[in-house]
Each structure stands twice: as C-alpha cells, then as structure tokens.
Amino acid sequence: MTQQVLDRVAGYERRFNTLFEEYFDTLSAGIAAPSFSRFTPDCLQLLRELSLRGGKRMRVVLLHEAARLVTGEPVEGLDAAALSIELLQTHGLVHDDLIDDSPTRRGGPSTYYAYRERFPGHPQTAVGLTVLAGDLALALSLQVLLDAKLPVSARQAMIEVQTRAARDTFVGQIIDLERDFTATAGEQILHCVADYKSARYSILAPMQLGLLAAGEEPDLFKQDLREYARLVGICGQMRDDYLDLFGDAVTMGKPTGTDIRDGKHTYTVSALLSAVDGTERALVEAALGDPSCTPETIATVREIGENRGVTVRMQADMRRYAEQASTVAAGWRSRWRDEAVTFFAHLPLWGVERAM
C-alpha cells in the first residue's frame, strides 16, 4: 500500500468515527421507549461504547473503495451504508461474545460481561439483555438504510444486500459451532465457515453496497465479486487463526492460544493435527478444549507447530489464496477505474504481510 492509499484509508476511518458518534448522539430521540425504562438507555449506551471502540473500519474502507471503482466523485448514500455495515458488525460482536463467553472486546468489557456485572444474581437476565442488545443493533442497521435519502429502488437494493449478509452470517455462526463437533475439520468445511461467517458480510456486502451507491449493478458481476470475497475471507480467517497461536501477544494486545483453549477446530488446529503424531499429537489433543491450559503448554504447542513446519505451510497457503484474490481483482481493469482496482488487487497481499 502506498502512503497515499494509507492516508485515504485513515481518512475514511476518521470521518466515519465522527459520523458514528453523531449517530449515537441522536439515536435515543428516535427510539420511542417508555419514559420509565432504565434498561433501554442502558442498552443503547452499551451499544455505543462497543461500536465506538472500533478498529480500522476496514468494512467502511471497502465500501468507499468499491464506490471508487465507478467514480472518483462524492457519492450519496455511503454514510448510511457505512452506518449499516458497522451496526451489523456490532450485532455480530455482541452475539459472538455471548456465544464464546468472552469477557473483553476491543479493549473493554464485552456487552455480555457488562450485563453480568450489572445483574450478578440474575444470569438469565444478563443473557436475555445481551441477545436483545445484539438484535437491536441488527434492526438499527436496517433502519438507517430505510431512512437514507436515496431513491426507493436504491434503498431496497441495499436492504436486500444487508439482509442476505445477516442471514448468511447467522448460518456461518451455526456451522462454526457445528465445525467444532467434527473429529477433524477438513479444508472444505473450514473454507465454508470462513465464507459464510465473515467473507459475505465483511467483504462482499460492503463492496456490493459501495457499487450500488455509485449507481452500478453488482449482480452483473456476481461471480467475480463472490469469488474475490471468498478468497479474501479464507485468507483473512487463516491469518486470524495463525496469529492466535503464532502471533505476538504484546502486538495483538491479547494472549495467544485462545482457540486451542476453547477447543476450536481452526485452520491452525487442523494444520497442527495433520502434522503431528504420537506423543506430540497427544499433547495437542489434550490441550484442545482445556480452558485451564497453561501458557507453558501453549508455548510447547507453538514450538511443535514451528518445528513441524506448520508456520511455513500456513504462510504459503495464505499467500496462495491472497495471490488468487489479487488475480481476480486485476481482471477488473477493463471494467472499472484503475486506481481502485489496484487497491483491491493489493489488499489481500497486504493482509498476508501483516501476519508475517
């Protein structure tokens, strides 16, 4: 990525963070909650806190760069689409943390644990309010599109994109849980989970929304967009799984080995199990799903993976999928603006470099 592109990406992030804060400043006025309710404003505050602790806003970046495929001029509807994307992400994070029993998210308490602290003697109330907070974020993600000052046909098309993205993500969550009940998650299953759980709403939907806002019809290029999103999603999930064991805990701001302790059959775990046997396999299997697994044991598993070439193979796989995605994007040059095509061609390779 050139400095010019990095500056543009940073600009998207800054502008959106201001937009998101302004959205939450006025949100309570648009929700007709009874005056006696204390739980409703508390829920909105928790959603605000989680949403505004966001990271690089890459979904917003993809949205804007997709519009730039069509035009370099300002595009109406991108703000509403960006809010919708990030509210859907907030919904996913709230429910993810409940499913995974995660105490923290983005450097603060997860919504679930915030409710557990508020209702220490009422665990079902904490669960129920967490589910409802996530559901509210989903409803808000569609409402901002309904309220957007766009032609009816454009609003309808955007709502259809987000509804499909939400549906596919729910299916992705289901098969993600199902994956961990399989003896060994094969490559096809892992790719399918990555596609449904992240690629379709984190990559495909933002690109479709950006094209729609710019007046393009994404269904005309459905196959290319879906293949690009699938490959980038696989590569990104591999990177996340790789970093969970082989990454630097200080740089990431969280401990390594979480997936192993949680018993998740990730790309990394699958690669480990296929590379070891005997006492090493027994050690990995004993650590898998053991929440009390010590940092020393995780370090041993990491060392086994490094010695057995798991890191090298995973890095090669990530680069292979990134290069395939880059090739798909490069094929868009005859159709769309070269500058934006270059961004999408470089993006997956940039993601791989961040993991190594």
TrEMBL record:
SUPFAM superfamilies in the cross-refs: Terpenoid synthases (SSF48576)
Molecular function terms, GO-annotated: metal ion binding; prenyltransferase activity
GO BP annotations listed: isoprenoid biosynthetic process
Keywords: Isoprene biosynthesis, Magnesium, Metal-binding, Transferase
Listed cofactors: Mg(2+)
Taxonomic superkingdom: Bacteria
Gene3D superfamilies: Farnesyl Diphosphate Synthase
InterPro entries associated with the record: Isoprenoid_synthase_dom_sf, Polyprenyl_synt, Polyprenyl_synt_CS
Record has Transferase as a keyword: yes
Record family assignment: Belongs to the FPP/GGPP synthase family.
Name of the featured protein: Polyprenyl synthetase
